[in-house]
Amino acid sequence: MPGVILETTGRKSGRPRRTAVGGRAVNDTFWMVSEHGEHSDYVRNIQANPAVRLRINGRWRSGTAHLLPDDDPLQRLGNLPALNSAIVRLMGSDLLTIRVDLD
């Protein structure tokens, strides 16, 4: 799903932080895989405060992010958009599945 923006709260600054992400919304859940796991700033922000917003198809939705270290990220990528999944597989160093339960 191109064009999805993830907004977290900066763990140090408390300010909104936005980053483009790839993934897929399934009903009221958004699935994505972080390329660099807990080394990604947005993942560290989620660890400090799991309340997030996602801009999907031009509409902001609030939700709660959950890091899923026991989920198989390579298997998860098989259910996500092909182009994004290929890039994550190619560039990723420490894959981590993230589930966002949308309000």
UniProtKB/TrEMBL annotation:
Q: From the UniProt entry, list the residue stretches annotated as the region Disordered.
A: 1-20
Q: Name one GO molecular function term.
A: oxidoreductase activity
Q: Which domain of life is it from?
A: Bacteria
Q: Which Gene3D superfamilies match?
A: Electron Transport, Fmn-binding Protein, Chain A
Recorded protein name is Deazaflavin-dependent nitroreductase family protein
